[in-house]
Amino acid sequence: MTIIDGKKVAQDILAEIAGEVEAIKAKGGKTPHLAAILVGNDGGSESYVASKIKACEKVGFKSTLLRFPDYVTEEKLLQAIANLNNDKDVDGFIVQLPLPRQINEHKVIESVLPQKDVDGFHPINVGRMVLNLPCYVSATPYGIVQLLERYHVPTSGKHCVVVGRSHIVGSPMSILMAKNTLLGNCTVTLCHSKTENLKSHTQKADILICALGSPEFVKADMVKEGAVVIDVGTTRVASTETKSGFKLQGDVKFDEVAPKCSFITPVPGGVGPMTIASLLKNTLLAAKKEIYS
Ligand code: L34
Predict the structure, then answer these.
(1) Comparing C-alpha atoms, which of 25, 138, 27 is closest to residue 92?
(2) Is any atom of ligand 1 closer than 6 Å to the C-beta of 268?
(3) Which residues contact 231 (CB under 8 A, 6 or more apart)?
(4) What is the mean pLDDT of residues 204-222?
(5) CA–CA separation, 61 vs 59, rounded Å?
(6) Does residue 248 have its Cβ closer than 6 Å to ligand 1?
(7) Do residues 105 and 125 touch, judged by C-beta distance below 8 A?
(8) Given 5, 52, 116, 117, which residue is catalytic?
(9) pLDDT in tens, 154-199
(10) N or C: lower Cβ tally within 10 Å for the chain?
(11) Residue 156: Cβ within 10 Å count
C-alpha cells in the first residue's frame, strides 16, 4: 500500500512554477498576478485562501486579496469582478466558494472573464474541458489527475467510481477520467445521493474517488482489495486533540480502508495541497497566455 504524498507533489510543482517565474522575470517579463475574492469569515475559506496567497509568495507571483463582509450585495461583488476583469495587471482571479445566500453563485461565476477564470468554473471553460479544447481545468480535479500521473497509477480500461456530483469536483472528475487521453480511458460510474445500493458500486471500483463531504463515510467493506482511493473530503470536525479545537476529516475511514488499497490519499496532505498547486499552475498558464492568446 502506498500513501500518496500530495503535500510533497504539490511542493515539487510549486518549485517547478518558481523556476518558470524566475525565467520570466529574468527576461524582463511581467510578474504573474493572482487575485482572490473572499466573502465573509468561514474558517475553511479563510484558511484555504491564506494558503493560496502564501503559495503565490513562495513561487514569486504577485497576489491580491479582496475581502468583503458576508452581507455584501451582489451588485458590489459583480462590480469588484468587473474591475478585476479589466485590470491589465491581474492574470487570473478566483471567487472563493461558498458564497452567502443573497449572492447568486452562477451569476458570479459567469461574470468572470473566461480568460482569467483560473478556477475553471465558467461555463466556457467547463464546455471546453468536455470538448478537449484548451481550457482551465478546475483545480481539484486537475490536482487529482496530476497525482495519479506522478504516481504512475494505471487508468486505461479501469473502472473508476466517483462518489459526488458537484460542479467543482465530482462532475468534472467523471468526465476527465473517461477521456481518451494518456491519463483517462476509464469506465466511469458517477454515484450521488440518489444512487441505490451505493456499496455495490464502490465495491467494483479499481479507482474510487470520494467527493461527498461526509466525514468517514467510506468504510472498508465498501472498497475492493487493491483499489486506488482518492479522498477529496476536507470537513472540519470538532476535536479535543488539537489546539484549534477542530480537525480535518476526509470522506474515507482511512485506518480501516488503507490496508486494502494499492494507493490512497490521506487527509490532510493529499488532494488539498494539490488544489492549491493546480490553481497556481493555471495562473501561470494565464500569465503566459497559453490557453487563450
Ligand atoms: N472558488 N472555491 C473556489 N475555488 C476552489 O478551488 C475552492 N476550493 C474548495 C472550496 N472552495 C473553493 C478550495 O480551494 C476546497 N478547497 C481547498 C483548498 C485547499 C485545501 C483544502 C480545500 C487544503 O489546503 N487542505 C489541506 C489542509 C488545510 C488545513 O489544514 O486547513 C490538506 O492537507 O488537505
Answers:
(1) 138
(2) yes
(3) 210, 218, 250, 251, 252, 254, 264, 265, 266, 267, 270, 271
(4) 97
(5) 6
(6) yes
(7) no
(8) 52
(9) 999 999 999 999 999 999 999 999 999 889 999 999 999 999 999 9
(10) C
(11) 11
**By three-state DSSP, how is residue 115 classified?**
helix
What is the CB-side half-sphere exposure of residue 136 using CA atoms within 13 A?
A: 35
Task: Locate 235 and state its grid cell.
Answer: 470537513
Q: What is the pLDDT of residue 97?
A: 97
Q: Which residue has the cell 463582509?
A: 69
How far does the centroid of ligand 1 lie from the alpha carbon of residue 22, in Å? 26
* Domains of the chain by start residue, with CATH: 30-113 (3.40.50.10860), 139-272 (3.40.50.720)
Strands 246-249 and 235-238, by their bridges, are antiparallel
Sign of CA dihedral 79, 82, 84, 87: negative
Q: Which atom of ligand 1 lies closest to the CA of 47?
A: 31
269 Cβ below 6 A of ligand 1: yes
Distance CA 161, CA 209 (A): 6
- Which three three-digit cell numbers place residue 104? 447568486
Contact between 247 and 233 under an 8 Å Cβ cutoff? The reply is no
CA-CA distances (angstroms) from residue 226 to 76, 79, 162?
51, 51, 17
Contacts 24+ apart (CB under 8 A), 107-110: 107/74, 107/78, 108/74, 108/77, 108/78, 108/81
* Adjacency order of strands within the sheet including 92-95: 62-68, 33-39, 92-95
